[in-house]
Amino acid sequence: MYDKSQEIPIGSDHGGFELKQYLIENFSKKGYSFRDFGTYSEDSVDYPDFIHPVAININNGTNKFGIIICGSGQGASMTANKYPNVRAALCWDLEQAELTRLHNNANIISLPGRFLNSEVAEEMVKVFLDTDFEGGRHINRINKIPVSL
Ligand code: RB5
To answer: Structural domains in the chain?
Structure first.
């Protein structure tokens, strides 16, 4: 469970810039704090440059939950999931945002900025942060995700 003393790292490319700004503005009003890793305008950029810093902070335990956004949410989640302690979930509705916390103990929510209504995305982030991992049978499952090649 998230509590408001925790900083949330957030990053996006240009495809997620507008939604990132919306989320920071609206959640900040409610007392949430963010570490904004950019991007800082709608100029075209490469999404990994803004997703890696978020993933690094989750991977090394600095922060518990992160938010990443690109146009589709796909490239962002692919990038973040390269880190062994990251479980980044691409979510497109409220149910997915809740389920991935309950079952996958996801620690990053990846949002498709070009496909989501801002108010729905806000609700999704709220549910994601407020939902606890169910544990139980799901513990073994998430423990089987990492690979050593
Ligand atoms: C940028 O045009 C777009 O490719 C990017 O935001 C993302 O959707 C990649 O997965």
So the answer is: 7-143 (3.40.1400.10)
